[in-house]
């Protein structure tokens, strides 16, 4: 994956962020992270490398995943970056699909499921 765009992991749980980033790094993916939607928007609007995929939690302080996605879609500079939701909130597929989310993975989930999701979406 050298040279590929990073995967941006957006989750307020530090342990989950570190686990996801570590797992993806072990498979050769570059990663970046943010602790909430507000931090993720700041990252995306900075001069940091543009991610090829955003893995987004829904329930976070300061700015939820839903709020983040709405603002991301309103910004033409970052609206095209695909988003997959990783959440413990059940039954979000319909709402997620209605806002253009490419996939939903439920917590807790196996590392293999995460790897398969990222591999499929980062082709």
What are the main properties of this structure?
123 residues, alpha/beta, Rossmann fold, five-stranded parallel sheet, 5 helices, 5 strands, globular
Tell me about this structure.
This protein has about 120 residues and is of the alpha/beta class. The chain is about 40% helix and about 15% strand. It has a single domain, classed as Response regulator (Rossmann fold), CATH 3.40.50.2300. The protein has a five-stranded parallel sheet. Helix 1 (about 15-25) links the parallel strand 1 (about 5-10) and strand 2 (about 30-35).
Briefly say what this structure is.
The protein is α/β, with parallel strands linked by helices and 123 residues long. The chain is 40% helix and 17% strand.
CATH-defined superfamily? Response regulator
Q: Fraction of residues in helices?
A: 25-40%
Strand order of the largest sheet: 2-1-3-4-5
Biggest beta sheet attributes: 5 strands, parallel
Give the H and E element order.
EHEHEHEHEH
Tell me the domain tally. 1
CATH architectural name: 3-Layer(aba) Sandwich
Distance between the termini: 10 Å
Radius of gyration: 13 Å
Per CATH, the class reads Alpha Beta
Number of strands: 5
Question: What's the helix and strand layout?
Answer:
Layout: E1 7-10, H1 14-26, E2 31-34, H2 37-45, E3 53-56, H3 65-74, E4 83-87, H4 93-98, E5 103-106, H5 111-121
Parallel strand pairs: 1-2, 1-3, 3-4, 4-5
